[in-house]
Queue: 4 jobs
Job 1
Amino acid sequence: MHEWALAEAVIVAAHQEAEKQNIKQITKVLVKIGELQQIDLDIFKFALENIKNIYDDLSFDADVIDLEVEPSLLKCKVCGIEWELRDLTRLKEDESEAIHFIPETAHVFMRCPGCGTPDFEIVKGRGVWIQSIEGVL
Ligand SMILES: [Zn+2]
């Protein structure tokens, strides 16, 4: 259900943004998804297509929506260094998978690569947002 709510928010926001910019026909919507956001991309795409059909006054097709994953950025609260999830090669593959599905488990598996503390914050890597909209005026 979470994917459906996000998809609807994206569709509505894209529509409002297009109106604000006087765009008649949207040709591209770039949607960014944080690497640590709990979201199933297949369900999200499916939801976008279906919700698009409910709003039949919209000036775009669901296939103009591009999804891009934004890399995470993590910062140690103790020594202050920053790193990305993908930098942590010492994470085993199955642990890395678990983090993608449940960001809260990041603290269970991850340690600061500098000082080894599990006390770090997630600076980037959460949320879903519209990065840009292109269209015909
Ligand atoms: Zn540290």
Job 2
Amino acid sequence: MAHLVELPTAFIDKARAILGPKGLAQDPVQLAPFLTEWRDRWRGSTPLLAQPDNPKKLAEFVNLCATYKLPITPQGGNTGLVGGQIPQGEVLLSTRRLTQIRAIDPAAMTLCVDAGVTLQQAAEAAAEHDLLFPLELASGGSATIGGAIATNAGGMGVLRYGNMRDLVLGLEVVLPDGQLWDGLSTLRKDNTGYDLKQLFIGSEGTLGVVTGATLRLFARPPTQITIWAGLEQPEDAVKLLAHLRGGFAEQISKFELISETSLELVLAHMNDARRPLQSRTPWHVLVEFGLSDTQDAMDQVFFALESAMEQGSISDAIVAKSQAEANALLALRENISAAQKQQGAAIKHDISLPLAAIPDFLQAAAEAIELQAPGTRFCIFGHLGDGNLHYNLLQPVGMKPQDFLAQRETITGLVHDLVHARAGSFSAEHGIGIAKIGEMQRYKSPMELSLMQSLKQTFDPDHLMNPRLWFEIAPQDKKDV
Ligand SMILES: Cc1cc2nc3c(=O)[nH]c(=O)nc-3n(C[C@H](O)[C@H](O)[C@H](O)COP(=O)(O)OP(=O)(O)OC[C@H]3O[C@@H](n4cnc5c(N)ncnc54)[C@H](O)[C@@H]3O)c2cc1C
């Protein structure tokens, strides 16, 4: 059980005066949903939940915590997958009441929002002006703009639109001492010294609390076409991507790889899910095109698929004939994580690799894992266009969940060593949180760790913002691979 920080009575009185009765909670029933997370891997504790309803109150509250040297864990939609948002005794600071859509400028294609606005709400606000906010996660109904910035979230549209870092023009941030930094620029060009906003993007709440952001919007492509194709091997997916890029370049907006095991789980657990192709192949891809040429768009896609079939990279394919069919194909991909949850214990990895190294990695990892834990089921899927795989391993049928999970460290070590040896990353999009602190020590160089620590020291000398996270690792503690 984590040690709860002690809150002096004077602190609580002052906090109540700043936040008002609705902005502060200590009742365990109210706190409970903030202290567990989607994977049910981490449970937390806190002496106080603070929920300010505007950035100024949030800044005053952070300043109060700094005065009393009280550590804080920021939380947005609580959909993070590495445990960084779950407090272990610290004060919990939620942005859920920061919900203003502040401004939209359709001509400049920018949107300014509070940090607690969800990705879905931001997309809806853009859609009202027939514009697109392209960050698409299966968790988008709950995940917040602030959380997506703090984790530099990715998702399915990265191939075309980039990850959160590419979508942010300006930020408003409360620093660990309570100062409010207004960096809400809408400029696309501004070469005036260090680009400070970039330091907060991906910093997982360790350098400050994001309270607002100005975001880039995009024109909606007039024609959207979604296809599903069956493949024999991962090499074919890499070939297909190269082939399609030749004809469509950046007009490919999604390129998702799905293993047959992943598809089978969705078909078994999700009502209304139907196998898209009659033939059964070991691998599948879902591709979405956002095309500007409305006249010949469908013909172009058919032509590209026919030639891919002639070259042997796909064995069968269908093209969605309506938005409903496209949504059904997309749901097969989006529901894999939910379906997988019902299959018992899983050891998950969010990795990225150079595209060309993916087939060889998959082969080497399958062999190593079969030796270590025979019968492990491989639920592999991900944003192949970005070289990002969700490499999830499910307990062998008949094995006790705890026996499989007892091997987590060994299995994850095997997987991450193989990724590292191929110049890949052990965390492509979910971040470090408390889940991957060991990996930071193992794979980051002492120079990188030391630079990160210097930044932390500059922004947060008392180490009050998310103090349990990875920036606390001392370079001298580094263990080599
Ligand atoms: C079903 C499902 C699918 C997902 N798919 C994807 C995917 O495709 N791609 C992807 O990248 N992620 C994905 N995720 C992970 C998650 O949704 C993202 O990491 C998301 O960006 C987290 O946002 P949040 O608001 O829920 O943040 P939280 O979970 O609340 O917090 C995450 C981290 O950010 C910090 N933080 C939160 N808000 C702020 C703030 N305002 N200022 C400073 N720090 C803050 C927290 O302290 C914590 O360290 C998925 C999660 C689920 C459950």
Job 3
Amino acid sequence: MTSTAILLATFCILLAVSLLLQAIFLRWGVKWASGSVVTLRKALLVAFVLQFAALAIGLCAYLFEARLPRQGTATVLAELVLQIVVPCAIVAISFKLTFLRGVQAWLPTLIPGIALIAFSYLVLRPYMYEAFVVPTNAMAPTILGNHAIGACPRCGAPAYASPPDAWSVRQTDGLVMICSKELKPCNVLKFTESGGPDRILVNKLITPRRWDLIVFRLPSDPSINYVKRLVGLPGEELLIRDGAVWINGEKLEPPEELRGIEYLSSIEFGNQTREAAGTSPLKLAGDECFVLGDFSAQSADSRFWEMGAPGHPPYAVPESHIVGVVTHIYWPISRWRSFR
Ligand SMILES: [Zn+2]
């Protein structure tokens, strides 16, 4: 099964369980409020309408806020009121109750909602899936942070980089971007600064493989999460030379989607040239990985870190720091992509 199928299955199961629980608690609520017994079928139908209404209200609030961002607090307040009044009214009308009895019948349906939130925070997020927003462009063009977009002067394909203020370059100098087709840097004179960050989904149950995109806790500061590509595996000897990575003396062939990528063994940093770790062969310990960013010219990755985790060299990501494997970009929808 692909990760997309597993993701959809998980989502559908959660939705079905929450519907069923809501229906059971709604039946109980109606009995509590009015003494009448309703069929599970009718309770299920009303629970379905309640979920649909909640989704519609949430969506309206989202769209409203996107159009009028300054009305933030008012929108949140209005949404909260609607999220209470509308379901109570639906329950009252569906079961022919007064509004107050409708509120009473609706109250128990909050219990499965709270249980679901608890499940998300205690099980789903720590052990199965977690979502992240990517702030930087070290993984561009594969994963984007807040970015500027231009056209590659060589081939015309979209090129990406962090907005110029992040690098304090003058507009007239152009911007070093990465071409999404060639995966090589290019200097772009005209660009727009409109792109927001990608939101990614990380699966914590699958075992990371070479070339996977992984999220890990930064070795020198575990409170910071990074996303990079897993390139060197535990126990391997790694060398970066001629734009390629060599493992145990053999040149690695990157996967098709990375064709053309060049891994630089030095970068310009201010007026200095900084040499990468891996320029001469290095040996990874049995629990250490080596990670690289796709925007090789502007990626702070295993090559250039100065501090590592305690007991490890600066370039090593200890296996225990790996959070999970990136399986999807899920937002914005236009950037939807499945990786594994
Ligand atoms: Zn190009």
Job 4
Amino acid sequence: MKLLEIHDLKTHFFTDAGILPSVDGISFEINQGEILGVVGESGCGKSVTAMSILRIIPEPPGRIVAGRILFDGHDLVSMPIEALRKIRGRDIAMIFQEPMTSLNPVYTVGEQLREVLSLHLGLDDDAARARIVEMFSLVGISEPAMRVDAYPHQMSGGMKQRVMIAMALCCSPRLLIADEPTTALDVTVQAQILNLLVKLRDERGLGVMLITHDLGVVAETCDRVVVMYAGRVVETACVQDLFAHPSHPYTVGLLQSLPDAAKPGSRLQTIPGNVPSPLNFPTGCRFRDRCSRASSACSLEPPLHVVGDGHEVRCHHPYQGGEHEHAIA
Ligand SMILES: Nc1ncnc2c1ncn2[C@@H]1O[C@H](COP(=O)(O)OP(=O)(O)OP(=O)(O)O)[C@@H](O)[C@H]1O
Ligand code: SF4
Ligand SMILES: [Mg+2]
């Protein structure tokens, strides 16, 4: 079942230097019980997309200029802000990369969760405390009954991120937007938190939008993947297809820049060139300055090709059939 549908979303920033079309006509959907990975180089618009869903774009300079974001059939873009506030934190929750900046140092973590539970679910203190202890054990916080009364500074970074996840999940949201939730954490804690997301998907049917730089995380955690480049979606596929049959030259480039564990000493390739500035994106395909397959046709908008079941690519000359295997060999 579709949980969230984004249709042709455009979020632009109106700066002194000019208009930045940071998110420029993207469409994708997230199903119930699915972890959707969103990948792409720094600055491609992943966080702006996430913030647009909850309408927390700094405005000005930013503004959603077009598009619809349907949740339960209701358009979050045109919804009155009071109605959206009820959805935020209750039906759709978000966790950020930096847990340290999201918790208030003055209050115990229990007090901070209690506020959320009281606001959205109207729970009294005893019911809230029981719920918090339950959530803390769910996210793997040891001695949960004691930790409720701890202050953020008494916890490690990994523990604080678990508190943030407990806070995000305490009202049983149906959609979790996780923007690089484990980047600041060590590998062991990272694995535990990703396992927790997988468990919540399996046991509670949670839908997750997982933004990450890390294709290894995508391979192990995600069901489907959206690849973004310069404010646009260039490829969408289930995770197996994306790795086995990458079709967009940018996706192939991203995969080529992965270290190949099977081939010790194999050389790491990076995509030549730089991401263009949003102030002067090229016309047509925005990847064309860096693409070895570019032709004169690429100065026109690339068409959308369906290359497999649920596998779509926006490119004039996508890799087809087994061609990509050669490309990433
Ligand atoms: N507050 C802002 N003011 C002006 N421009 C902004 C602002 N926030 C984002 N942008 C623009 O939006 C673009 C996309 O930013 P975004 O944060 O979504 O990138 P990202 O894909 O999340 O990158 P990263 O992987 O580094 O987190 C940026 O390149 C920048 O041009
Ligand atoms: S449209 Fe052209 S330039 Fe863009 S990725 Fe495809 S082949 Fe390369
Ligand atoms: Mg970001």
